[in-house]
Please model this.
Amino acid sequence: MSILKAISNAFEVLPPLPPTADPLRRLVEQFRGKPRIEALLRAIAAQVQQLNDVATDLLEKRWLDTAEGAQLDGLGRILGLDRGAWDDEQYRARLRFRIRVLLADGTPENIITTLALLSEGRPVQLIETYPAELRIVMGGAVTPEVEGALRETALSIKPPGVAFWLESGSNPDEPEFAFDGGDGAGFGVGVLRGVIHG
Model:
């Protein structure tokens, strides 16, 4: 048996290609019905299809939204954030936040948007005061862990040379103090807001 016949027979076991990917549909008439040419085209088309599948897999599994496991860890290494004990969804959320911090430009809108990601759904208000000072007021009490994360994040994204104050309640289980008509507890009840200077 000739080597060309052996190659032709070897490619007969290839799975059929979908009609849109059939390499023979554009074959010039003079080459139709030639088993060796058809086998060669099918072999090349199968390899091209395999390369296409690998390229698609490479593209789709390396995006932050679709990466899992080791691919997500690789993105974390690029961004300088270790996984720790987080599962894929928690780690993905932390990586999104890390990207936000790395791309922060110090504008008030950017600071509010970035801190809102950490604020557990509480509103974030930014008040600029003269000269070069930012007051960030949380719309409710946050846990000490979140308060620490807010402080560290705000310090890393605020413009250089700008003072920073973070105001939030210190205990989310206790109502905050408010004057009559305000949104909170009255005299003798509630806690005062904590203020952290950065």
